[in-house]
Amino acid sequence: MAKSGVFEGDPGTVAKAMELKRELQKLVKAIVDDEDVNLDAIDRAQQMLSALKELKLKKYLSLNFHNNHSREVVFSAVPEEFKCPLSKELMRDPVIVATGQTYDRPFIQKWLKSGNRTCPRTQQVLSHTILTPNQLIKEMILQWCKNHGIKLSDSVQYSDEDGLTGADRDQFISLLEKMSSTMSDQKEAAKELRLLTKRMPSFRTLFGESRDAIPQLLSPLSQNKSRNEVHPDLREDIITTLLNLSIHDNNKKLVAETPTVIPLLMDALRSGTIETRSNAAAALFTLSALDSNKELIGKSGALKPLIDLLEEGHLLAMKDVASAIFNLCILHENKLRAVRDGAVRVILKKIMNRMHVDELLSILAMLSTNQKAVEQMGELGAVECLLSIIRETSCARNKENCIAILFTICYSDRSKWKQMRDEENTYRTISKLAENGSSRAKRKASGILERLNRAINITHTA
């Protein structure tokens, strides 16, 4: 038997509705059976439908008023500690900020995303923006709702500004818990976290909301295990998840300053699948976008394993490694470390073999501001290599970097001027660049030509 829906419970309304339905059925049958179009029957059917609609709306409004009234009565009795200080409403996902105050997650997130860095209630500056779930208050709210017949958590599929639901957060917590379980659980959870942090940028934010999330993710790699005890796929998934997290700007500082992160990335640079090593380099590159992280990564000694991986020459890893080294060497102290760790020799060798010339020339140009690096370049045959690239390449940027490095070498080491003069006499390499290069290339080439001409005049005079 069909249910009468909102008509149920009111005998008068139910009887009237049933009468209208019976009449409507007769009219519809007459319309369908009649070979001609029965306009009178159609008009009457429309009247029946309108009457039914009016009945339903009246009953709906009556019920809605009743429900809203009941809700207002119940919610007027909500304890103040269960209400969000920002929304003044019952909290569904209470979280604690750095000052110890509790707010409903979407409202405090909106406050923080607006650029505020203070606690709305106390006006204290927040030492960090991590939001910690207030499980005690949440349990108390759920119990209060149960006692008052409110199914708050079931009636609404709650989602915050980032599009994350309570189910997403429960899944996140469950996956992190599995990272401390059996090997099979760890592998399953690590793979899922890798996929989720790749597909859902909002999922990356969850790691920034708890101090324990990143250590939990890394726990399989941090339990004093030897490399051979960690499954290669598990390590690759964890390192790749770290890379995914690092892409999120708000995570960069937190990720880099988690004590185990940089040592584990350095370890991953030295061993594991080439994908793991490449992703570890990419993670260091991404994290080094922050100047404070450049210093932290450089001090940790990460440049040496990066340079070693560059020397190995894996095609899959070289671009990520070069990008990481370049970013780190923007900081003066890291240039010194890179030169000390053998970067000049390794980079020049790769350039001579015409491997990733664009990226590596940019690093070499950056290092050429260091006197020790310039001396090494001169000793390792950089002049001949750089001149040959200027002759061969059509890339204006590469020509510019080459002549800038040559300018520095020649002004540092007078013995190189003969080599430059021979090049000019044979190929007119420097003159051509002074005529057709970029503005910076023209300036450097002209400076070298001026010095060469002066040397020639001095020789003729003598």
From TrEMBL:
Keywords: Repeat, Transferase, Ubl conjugation pathway. SUPFAM superfamilies: ARM repeat (SSF48371), RING/U-box (SSF57850). SMART domains: ARM, Ubox. It is an enzyme of class 2 (transferase). It catalyses: S-ubiquitinyl-[E2 ubiquitin-conjugating enzyme]-L-cysteine + [acceptor protein]-L-lysine = [E2 ubiquitin-conjugating enzyme]-L-cysteine + N(6)-ubiquitinyl-[acceptor protein]-L-lysine. This is RING-type E3 ubiquitin transferase. It comes from Abeliophyllum distichum. Residues 77-151 form the U-box domain. Pathway: Protein modification; protein ubiquitination. Pfam families: U-box. The keyword Cell division does not apply. GO terms for molecular function: ubiquitin protein ligase activity. Transmembrane segments: none annotated.
